[in-house]
Amino acid sequence: xxxxxxxxxxxxxxxxxxxxxxxxxxxxxxxxxxxxxxxxxxxxxxxxxxxxxxxxxxxxxxxxxxxxxxxxxxxxxxxxxxxxxxxxxxxxxxxxxxxxxxxxxxxxxxxxxxxxxxxxxxxxxxxxxxxxxxxxxxxxxxxxxxxxxxxxxxxxxxxxxxxxxxxxxxxxxxxxxxxxxxxxxxxxxxxxxxxxxxxxxxxxxxxxxxxxxxxxxxxxxxxxxxxxxxxxxxxxxxxxxxxxxxxxxxxxxxxxxxxxxxxxxxxxxxxxxxxxxxxxxxxxxxxxxxxxxxxxxxxxxxxxxxxxxxxxxxxxxxxxxxxxxxxxxxxxxxxxxxxxxxxxxxxxx
Length: 349
Known about the structure:
By secondary structure, this protein is mainly β. 7% of the residues lie in helices and 30% in strands. It is built from 3 helices and 16 strands. A 9-stranded mixed β-sheet has the order 8-9-10-11-12-13-14-15-16, with no helix packed on it. A 5-stranded mixed barrel has the order 1-2-3-5-4. Strand 14 (293-300) and strand 15 (306-314) form a beta hairpin. It is globular and about 65 Å long.
C-alpha cells in the first residue's frame, strides 16, 4: 500500500516535475522497492524544482558516503506546514523512499524521521506517514479549502489546484490520462521514450504549450490593456493572450508558448493557441506535431469559488481525433503566485 501511494504521489499527485540536465525525473527511481537509509543530515537546498538533501552515511565496509536525496518542490513544501527550520543540519535522521536505478547514492525521499520522534512527510497530504503519528508536513493547501465563495466572481484572481476531490480534478490530471487517441506514428515515438534517459526540460528552461499547463501550482489572470496575462508559478512563466486578434499571424515566429488569441463567450474566456514551437504534449513523452492548434476555455463559477477548464487539441500528427480534457482550479483567500526561482543545485548530479 505504501509503495502504491508513494507511486501515486510522485507520478500523479505532484505531476512529475521533470528535471534538469543533472536532475532526473522520478522515473529514475525504483518505486517498487522502497527502503530506509539513515545518517547525518549535512545540507538542505531549499529550492525549485526539487528540494535536495545531503545525507552522510556509511557503506557496508564502513566507509563514509554521501547521498543526494531528492524530495518535493519548494513551491509545494512552502504550501504545507513544513518549513526549512524543520530540517536541522547535523541531526542523525532516517529517510524512507526509493533508491535510484542509475546511481548508488541517489534517493527519492518520501518522509524523514528526526531523532526527537517527529516525522517530516515530504509529500504531505498524499501519502501516509511511515513511522509515527507525530507528523509535520501533512497539512497542505493542495487538499484543503477551495470551497469559499468569492464576491468578485470574475476570472481575474489567483487560482490553485486541489487534489483528493473526484469532483474537482486538477487541470494537470489531463496530462496523465491513459486513453489518448494516438496515431500510429505517435504511439511508435512514445514506445521509444525512456523516462530515465529522456527529458522534457533541460536545466531550468520553462516548458512550452501545452505542457506548461501540466503543473500543480497557482495561476493568475491579469488584465493589461487589450491583452490578458496568464501568470503561471512554475518557472515564472507568463502567457500573453491577445484580445484584439492577431495581424499577420503566419508571420509570427513559432515559440514554445505559441501565439494566443482570446475572446469572451459570456463569462468564459476562450483562448486559441497555435504557432507552437514546443515538441511535447506532456512530460511522459507524448510528442506534439508541427501544426497543433489548442483551444482552451476558462469559466469561473457563479459564486467565484472555482474555475472550470477545458482544453481541445487538434494535432493530426499526434492524435487520431481531436483530444479533449477538463479540470478545475479553486479559489483560496490569500493564495499567491509566488516567485519560482528555479535553481539547479550543486547536489544534483
